[in-house]
Design goal:
- By secondary structure, this protein is an alpha/beta fold.
- The chain has a single domain, classed as Alpha-Beta Complex (Protein-Tyrosine Phosphatase, Chain A), CATH 3.90.190.10.
- Helices cover 40% and strands 11% of the residues.
- The protein is built from 10 helices and 8 strands.
- The strands form 2 sheets. The protein has a 6-stranded mixed beta sheet, with helices on both faces. Strands 7-8 form a two-stranded antiparallel ribbon.
- α3 links the parallel β4 and β5.
- The longest helix has 26 residues.
- The chain is globular.
- It starts with a strand and ends with a helix.
- The C terminus is likely disordered.
């Protein structure tokens, strides 16, 4: 049940890692990505995260606002507004950094930067892998903290394929099977994936092709790691975490087999669950924000007033 470290900035593990304050604080975790967990459940657990400032993005392909009651939807709107506002502030902060004085932020992303205005995503297929890796890239570029990617038990196929895609993003010259072996070396309990099964995950295959085209051929001087280097690094990380007694969980969580092969499509529509027309604000609750506000500053949020028409769409 321990979380593992995928790379210098990225950790992954089960849902109950969110309650491990010592682990989160010691590893400077500030960004969270939930995978395959219903938004309302992720939102409930986020309330118990004992960190002053953090951001949570949800990958939930089954999210459908029509099935929620008015009161539940109001809470989700408030949750979405808070973290989406922080995400947009982060993107603005990154785009104005020295690194992007001579090139646009868009040059390091796979989806249009304008798509990242919400913290809830229902994308599937190759689009899901692009969104996930773009979010990881944005969090890394912010240099504000490390990242935890989590699912119900940290072992399911949905999470594993996303972790594989992140390794392919960093090392385009390796194969998907090499990347899986790397993750398996780190966390032996993850679901076993054969080379054939990875091949039939069309979204992952398509994403790998795009990565190779962009990273290997679009950027002169790129040098990817070899398969042996990846495996050796994974073994060292696993041994390091086995020596540390960071987590003693009281509860384990069940999971469903979340194969991506049946749902992968060449393209899918990104989730933008809420637009400005979906909620309004009372001026009594608005608090002006300073022009130079940062993503980790203390902020008072306006209470969302849900419009009836939005629920009936």
């Amino acid at each position: 049940m321990k979380p593992q470290q995928l790379s210098n900035n990225v950790f992954f593990g089960p849902l109950n890692t969110l309650s491990q304050y010592d682990f989160l604080s010691q590893n400077d975790i500030k960004f969270f990505v939930s995978v395959g967990i219903p938004v309302e459940r992720a939102m409930e657990y986020a309330r118990n995260v004992q960190l002053d400032q953090f951001m949570l993005c949800c990958l939930d392909k089954d999210f459908d606002r029509v099935r929620y009651s008015d009161s539940a939807m109001c809470q989700i709107l408030e949750f979405n507004n808070k973290h989406s506002t922080d995400l947009k502030t982060l993107i603005e902060h990154v785009s104005m950094s020295e690194e992007f004085n001579t090139q646009p932020l868009q040059s390091v992303l796979y989806r249009p930067v304008s798509e990242y205005t919400t913290n809830i995503y229902t994308a599937e297929g190759v689009h899901k892998f692009e969104c996930f890796n773009d979010l990881i890239t944005l969090f890394k570029l912010s240099k504000m903290g490390n990242i935890l990617v989590f699912s119900s038990n940290g072992n399911d196929e949905n999470l594993v394929t996303l972790l594989i895609s992140q390794m392919l993003r960093q090392n385009p010259s390796i194969s998907a099977m090499d990347a899986f072996n790397y993750v398996k070396n780190l966390r032996s309990t993850v679901n076993n994936l054969t080379e054939d099964k990875l091949y039939w995950c069309s979204g992952l295959v398509a994403y790998h092709e795009r990565v190779k085209s962009k990273e290997m051929y679009g950027r002169p001087g790129f040098c990817g790691s070899t398969s042996n280097e990846v495996t050796n690094f994974a073994t060292k990380r696993r041994e390091q975490f086995e020596e540390e007694d960071m987590i003693d969980p009281d509860t384990s969580f069940g999971y469903a087999n979340l194969s991506d092969a049946g749902n992968d499509a060449a393209e899918s529509i990104a989730s933008t669950p809420f637009s400005e027309s979906d909620y309004s604000y009372s001026s009594d609750f608005q608090t002006p924000e300073p022009d130079n506000i940062s993503v980790h500053s203390s902020r008072q949020y306006a209470n969302p007033r849900l419009k009836r028409m939005a629920l009936n769409k």
